[in-house]
Write a structure and sequence with these properties.
153 residues, alpha+beta, Aminopeptidase, 5-stranded mixed sheet, 5 helices, globular
Length: 153
Amino acid sequence: MKLNLRRVERIEEALAMATELDRHAAQFWAQFSDEPWPAGACERFLRQHFDERETVLVAALDGSRAAPWGVCLVGPLVDPLRGESLPTVLVLHVDPALRHRGVAHELIEEATRALVARGVERLAARVGHNDDALISMGERWGFVRSWGLMVRE
């Protein structure tokens, strides 16, 4: 398998991927919430934030399929009081048939290179507090636990 990564540089191309991004985000979201993923959320996000320096969309392609078989969408997470923006992995998905081959890691690496080229030196990722596999994977890739989010219901 030859890995062909491509940064999506045009909003039109990103918007063409919005439905698929929503599908992948909904699958991820379902692990943490009983609430449904809001339809059209990725398109709304792309329309609002695509041109910001913290937003990067990378697709993994093989040339034989119309849709990408891996995607990584990074976007700004903004502290509402300080206004500080932290680029955060919002969607990371690899076709289940192609997992465990380093594709997700390469998507993260390409997104990181794009951020560094824009003068952004940090990248965050959200993970469930008890998702040991995802936490371990992130730590192998250089992520460190930085802060926690507690929710009271």
